[in-house]
Amino acid sequence: MSMRFFKLTDDAYLPGRWDLGHPLDEQGRKLDDPWQFRIGQRAHSPGRIKVPIKTTGKPLDYSHAAFSVPVVHTRAASLFTELAPDDVQLIPVELDTQPEQHFILNATRLVRCIDDDASEEVRYWTPEDGMPEKVGTYSSVAGMRIDPTKTEGFKVFRPWGWTVALLVSEDLKKALEHADITGVKFTEVTGP
Cα(62)–Cα(90) distance, rounded to whole angstroms? Predict the structure, then answer.
């Protein structure tokens, strides 16, 4: 039986939840490159990072800061390091009024695994789009499906060409659910 994988996202529709802002550097300036946490490779830590709480509300164990940068409470971080230690980088962050430890969760693996034929719709950048640096990469992926045989045993990764998605293995999904980690939402990306 092949492994199942899920797209992990922030459950943005939880009532009364908090909302996190743009990651800031030590001087309180917006980070120049928040995208570095979404490209499937180790990030270079810019020093101490602060993430402001844009809207106060119920704190979550998993949520997205601006640019969909995953931020996790230490409870969630421990599960990622226990089950996928070589697939993640945890970068400590300070959250305004939160005394508990939080981290940016950075997936360090990039895997060429999207199944174009099984996905609902995929589009690629073409020369006619006027963005030569993007030609040959995905411009959109709807109803994404992946080929689990190409995941190389990784449990947390970003799919090549569509790094807006953060994918996790079924055993990690179950561990997060069993621990009642708040803020997580899963969408299966394997199967029909």
Answer: 13
